[in-house]
Design goal:
single chain; Rossmann fold; five-stranded parallel sheet
Length: 281
C-alpha cells in the first residue's frame, strides 16, 4: 500500500483544489479524471485512501465504488465520496462508502475526514512484518509477493528447498508461507517441525542474551494452483490423498508440529482476507 491519496474527479478545478489542500496538509496525491482511469490507478498503486466524485464519464462514482467493494484485493481501501448531490449520501453509505461530503466542501471538515480514514488505515497496517514465501509456481509467488507488499510487509521469495534455512536465518521472518503440494526432499510436516523448533534465526542467536528479543516465526500453509489438489509430496515421492480425511490428517500433523494455519489453495481474490487474521497476531 502506498502512502498516497487518490483523487478521482472529472472537474479539473476540483482536482486542483483537493490536491492543493491535501499536499499543504502533508499528503502525497495522485489523480484520475474518471472512474475507469481511477479503478486502474487503484489496482496499480493501491492508495491509502480514495476520494471520488459521483458524476463522471466512462464510469461514475457509484459504479466505481461497487467495483472496489467487489474486488477482494482492493475492497478494504477507504473511499470518501465528494459530490454536489448530497441526497445520494445514504445510497453510497449503503454500498460501502466510508464517508460522504457534499460540495462545495468545507476545507476543515474535508481534511478531518481524510485524516480519520488515514488513521484507520495506519492502525491496521502491517508495516515492518517480514515474510518469506516458499513455492515453485512463479506466477503464484509473484502475486502473493505483490499482495503482501501492498499491505506494508517486507517479502522474500524462495523457490528452492535448499535455500530455505539460509533465507530464514538471514531475514528472521515473522511469518513463513509454505506450499505443501510441491516436491520437496523433506516432507512438509517435518519441514514445519524444523522451522518451528530448530530454526532459531542467526540474528536472534547472536542476540540471545537479550531476553526481550522475539524469535518466534509462524508458519502458514497453502497450496499452489488454481484448483484444489489431490496430491501432496511426502517422503520425497508423490502420494495421492486417499480421502479428504487423509488430507486433514496431514494438515493436522503440520499443526501438531507448530504450523499456525492453513489457507487452502491460493486464490488471488481471497488471499488477503484469509491471511489478515493471522498476520495481525
Amino acid at each position: 500500500m502506498k502512502d498516497i491519496i487518490l483523487i478521482i474527479d472529472d472537474a479539473r478545478e476540483d482536482l486542483n483544489l483537493f490536491q492543493a489542500m491535501l499536499e499543504e496538509h502533508g499528503y502525497m496525491v495522485a489523480r484520475a479524471c474518471d472512474g475507469q482511469e481511477g479503478l486502474k490507478r487503484i489496482k496499480q498503486d493501491f492508495p491509502m485512501v480514495v476520494i471520488s466524485d459521483v458524476m463522471m464519464p466512462n464510469m461514475n462514482g457509484y459504479a466505481l465504488l461497487k467495483e472496489i467493494r467487489h474486488d477482494q484485493s482492493i475492497a478494504k481501501i477507504p473511499v470518501l465520496i465528494v459530490t454536489a448531490r448530497p441526497k445520494m449520501a445514504e445510497a453510497f453509505l449503503e454500498i460501502g462508502a466510508d464517508s460522504f461530503i457534499a460540495k462545495p466542501v468545507n476545507g476543515d471538515r474535508f481534511l478531518s475526514e481524510v485524516d480519520k480514514l488515514v488513521g484507520r488505515v495506519k492502525s491496521s497496517r502491517l508495516d515492518g512484518k517480514r515474510i518469506v514465501i516458499f513455492g515453485k509456481n512463479e506466477k503464484t509467488l509473484k502475486d502473493m509477493h505483490q499482495q503482501l507488499e501492498k499491505i506494508g510487509c517486507t517479502v522474500v521469495d524462495v523457490g528452492e528447498e535448499k535455500q530455505i534455512i539460509a533465507v530464514v536465518e538471514e531475514v528472521n521472518p515473522d511469518f513463513f508461507f509454505l506450499a505443501i503440494n510441491v516436491e520437496t526432499k523433506i516432507p512438509g510436516d517435518l519441514l514445519v517441525y524444523i522451522l518451528n523448533t530448530w530454526s532459531l534465526p542467526k540474528k536472534a542467536r547472536e542476540d540471545r542474551d537479550h531476553p526481550t528479543s522475539s524469535v518466534k516465526m509462524h508458519t502458514i500453509l497453502y497450496e499452489e494452483g488454481e484448483e484444489e489438489t489431490e496430491q501432496i509430496w511426502l517422503n520425497g515421492a508423490e502420494e495421492n490423498y486417499l480421502s479428504a480425511d487423509h488430507k486433514k490428517f496431514f494438515i493436522q500433523k503440520c499443526y501438531n508440529n507448530g504450523a499456525l494455519g492453513y489457507i487452502g489453495t491460493y486464490s488471488p481474490q481471497a488471499f488477503l482476507s484469509k491471511v489478515q487474521p493471522f498476520l495481525h497476531l
